[in-house]
Amino acid sequence: MRLFPFCAVACLTLSAMAVAESKSPAVKTPPTVTVALDATEAPRKILQAKLNIPAKPGPLTLYYPKWIPGEHEPSGPIQNLTGLHFQANGHELTWRRDLLDAWTFHVDVPEGAASVDVTLDYLFPATFEGGYSSGSSATEKMAVISWNQVLLYPAGWISDELKYVASVRLPKNWKFASPLPVASQSGAEVRFAAASLTTLVDSPVLTGEYMRMEPTGENPHHELDLAADSEAALDGPPDFFEHQRNLVTQAQKLFGSYHYPNYHFLYSLSDHVAHFGLEHHASDDSRVDERGIVDPTKRKLFAGLLPHEFVHSWNGKFRRPADLATPDYQKPMQTDLLWVYEGLTSYLGDLLSARSAIRTPDEARDNLALIAAELEYRPGRSWRNLQDTADAVPALQDSPAAWQSWRRGVDYYDEDVLNWLWVDVLLRQQTGGKKSMDDFCHAFHGGASGSAEVKTYTFDEIVSTLNTLAPYDWRKFWTERLTNHGPGAPLAGLEGSGWKLVLNDTPSALTSAREELRDTIDSRFSLGLDLLADGSIVDTVEGLPAAKSGIGPGMKVLAVNGRKFSKIILRDALKAAKSNSDPLELLVENAEYYRTFKIDYHGGEKFPHLEREDSKPDMLSEIYAAK
Ligand SMILES: [Zn+2]
């Protein structure tokens, strides 16, 4: 166990050499695998694949991808791999799963055989399930195909070396989009150009009956590819598409180079696929509600998603922590540098959402205020430092929402928005405004444009790059940021940028949108209650009034001051309590028992906002301004 990545353990070149040494000397050329995918039954939630894998007689070990890039955990959906058969020269082969690793299969290749034919089925979840690419991915009208779902690969090679020739047969009249170049197409049959296994797994296919492809930039070509469960859901307003074009322009200015031949924003609009964003080198797999671009409230809520995933092409895919750049999909990933991989991406994604006008200045500040308040009221910081939230990801990423404020979740996203803002402010202060995070991005993410390469880094390179811009004890700065226990959020950067966090009784438009769309009541910063609209308690904030009175996650509020619970009744009671001394009475159900809790709280509702600090220059507006 280690806290800091002072030395890298695996760069791609070293790993390749290690694997090459273990190869049989008789096999020199990496095999070319063909995978023919039948996706015509995608609406029935089943894909069928036929693979041909060159092999020589003797024991053969095959892997189903386990550690999926960007998911940061061993999430390869092995439970959905079914219908598995192996054949050689037309004869069925027996197979056995590895006793220590369920993603590994062993077969014996008979004498005289030069390859193994594999057939397999992949089952999309039949009912709604979350969870990245293993979550719900197909509906009656559309599907997202991730190639890691439908292939095996032979042991002894790194994923860069293995060549795959992939093809797919789509449902009748379905269109498709993918960053993978097309070699030929005949009706519903699409044959892609040969690619390395790395590139194939990094290149999902978005397909559906209702699709819209909008160019968002040229030289190189950028495209927003939408697939939806209805034609009407594709009809976003003109400024939505204009802002996406701005995003491409502003990102090119921020980084000064690009590391993809062309880029496809693959955007799924459906209430029946899992909702998340997953980065790829030349595309992203982003999924929101069916009305995610036509409904203005939903557009507001999902505003940060595409900028975040786009930034990942530079920060995460091109520049990647050395111990996340594994040689294949079986080697475990180490996640200690996610405060750069995800934290810096979150900071730059929010910055670009403001610069591209995807968020108005008010919306950008409301988003930052919410982040600052959530971390300010995060008691789990007292026992668990920020570094540990990154280190523990492979095991803890899917923790439940209950007790989140005490357990802490993936705080390296949001807390590092505050920390990287602090770095931006320090760079500007130390250099009299001559250097900023824009210069960091040019230096750290720059280089020759065009190809999708991986350049690994360590903690040391973050420190040394910052030092070339402005001499400062950046190692001490980041060590302190990653190991401190508060109290409270790291707000020095925000305050240095000319703004401060304030709480008042008026929810921001962003808070209202979150409450409306998630059907929740946000009393986290007053009573310390995160509630569903029916009174179910998702989480309590340790140390705040509700938790101190004895209320915990999983209970349900039934009545407030003797009257049936509703959002309005709770809001009115909090308002009235400001001007009287009576305790608030909550009738609460806990596993079939009822109890009344008295809460002596008179502070009213509290919602986060940013307020201008006139004594300081307004650096935040400068950071968020279009370049
Ligand atoms: Zn991310």
Q: Can you give a write-up of this model?
A:
The protein is globular, with a radius of gyration of 26 Å. The strands form eight sheets. Strands 1, 2, 4, 5, 8, 11, 13, 14 and 15 form a nine-stranded mixed β-sheet that branches. It has 627 residues and is of the alpha+beta class. 28% of the residues lie in helices and 26% in strands. Mean pLDDT is 94; it is low at 1-27. Strand 26 (529-532) and strand 27 form a beta hairpin. It starts with 11 loop residues before the first helix and ends with a helix. Helix 5 (305-311) packs across helix 7, helix 7 packs antiparallel against helix 8 and helix 7 (343-355) crosses helix 12. Bound molecules: zinc ion (ZN). Residues 279, 308, 312, 342, 345 line the site of zinc ion (ZN). Zinc ion binds at residues 279, 308, 312, 342, 345.
What summary fits the major beta sheet?
9 strands, mixed
Query: Based on helices, strands and strand pairing, what is the structural class?
Result: alpha+beta
Helix content: 25-40%
How many beta-strand segments? 32
- Estimate the strand proportion: 25-35%
Radius of gyration: 26 Å
User: Terminal Cα separation, in Å?
Assistant: 43 Å
The small molecules bound here are:
zinc ion
Unreliable spans are: 1-27
Coarse morphology: globular
Instruction: Report the total helices.
Output: 20
Please tell me the overall pLDDT.
94
Q: Topology of this structure?
A:
Elements: H1 12-22, E1 32-38, E2 46-54, E3 58-63, E4 81-88, E5 91-93, E6 95-97, E7 104-109, E8 115-123, E9 142-145, E10 153-154, E11 163-169, E12 175-177, E13 182-186, E14 189-192, E15 195-196, H2 197-201, E16 205-208, E17 210-217, E18 222-228, H3 238-255, E19 263-269, E20 276-279, E21 283-288, H4 296-301, H5 305-311, E22 319-321, H6 338-341, H7 343-355, H8 361-376, H9 386-391, H10 393-396, H11 404-407, H12 415-430, H13 437-445, E23 455-457, H14 459-469, H15 474-483, H16 492-496, E24 499-504, H17 509-518, E25 520-523, E26 529-532, E27 537-540, H18 545-549, E28 556-560, E29 563-564, H19 567-577, E30 584-590, E31 593-599, E32 607-612, H20 619-624
Parallel strand pairs: 1-11, 18-19, 19-21, 22-23
Antiparallel strand pairs: 1-2, 2-8, 3-7, 3-10, 4-5, 4-8, 6-7, 9-16, 11-14, 11-15, 12-16, 13-14, 17-18, 20-21, 24-32, 25-26, 26-27, 28-29, 28-30, 30-31
Helix pairs in contact: 5-7, 7-8, 7-12, 13-14
Bound molecules: zinc ion (ZN).
The site of zinc ion has 5 residues, from loops.
